[in-house]
């Protein structure tokens, strides 16, 4: 998050959803990067980072799943809001646009990977049948 993060502009649920998407995106990015690395030391390091990102993703996704049971309408609205504004990993870095394109063309993380992260999280949260979320699901 290179441009900073202002929690006062999002609701608490939007913040949880945003972080859950962010962490899962980074976990997928790191796993896909790890799969392309041949150097064993670097591969191990990136694998450890991916594992850490996956733990973060589980933690925040569990929180979102819980609030979906207690504040479903607000959670659906938060998912719509955050999914609509979610960008590719690194796209928040102004000088990184060419690298985002390189990462995408290398098959590490692209719009399809981002869409899969969003759709998978929505399904995991039990929200895939919500009409407001159809545009973000694979259905």
TrEMBL record:
GO terms for molecular function: metal ion binding; stearoyl-[ACP] desaturase activity. Its cofactor is Fe(2+). Keywords: Fatty acid biosynthesis, Fatty acid metabolism, Iron, Lipid biosynthesis, Lipid metabolism, Metal-binding, Oxidoreductase. Transmembrane segments: none annotated. One of its GO terms (biological process) is fatty acid biosynthetic process. InterPro entries: Fatty_acid_desaturase-2, Ferritin-like_SF, RNR-like. Pfam families: FA_desaturase_2. Belongs to the fatty acid desaturase type 2 family. This is Ferritin-like domain-containing protein. It comes from Mycolicibacterium fluoranthenivorans. The lineage of its organism: Bacteria, Bacillati, Actinomycetota, Actinomycetes, Mycobacteriales.
């Amino acid at each position: 998050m290179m441009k900073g993060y202002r929690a006062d502009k999002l609701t608490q649920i939007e913040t949880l959803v945003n972080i859950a998407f962010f962490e899962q995106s980074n976990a997928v990015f790191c796993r896909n990067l790890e799969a392309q690395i041949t150097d064993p030391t670097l591969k191990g390091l990136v694998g450890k980072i991916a594992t850490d990102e996956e733990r973060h993703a589980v933690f925040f996704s569990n929180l979102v799943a819980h609030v979906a049971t207690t504040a479903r309408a607000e959670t659906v609205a938060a998912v719509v809001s955050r999914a609509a504004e979610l960008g590719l990993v690194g796209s928040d870095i102004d000088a990184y646009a060419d690298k985002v394109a390189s990462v995408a063309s290398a098959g590490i993380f692209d719009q399809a990977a981002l869409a899969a992260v969003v759709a998978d999280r929505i399904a995991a949260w039990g929200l895939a049948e919500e009409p407001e979320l159809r545009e973000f699901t694979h259905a």
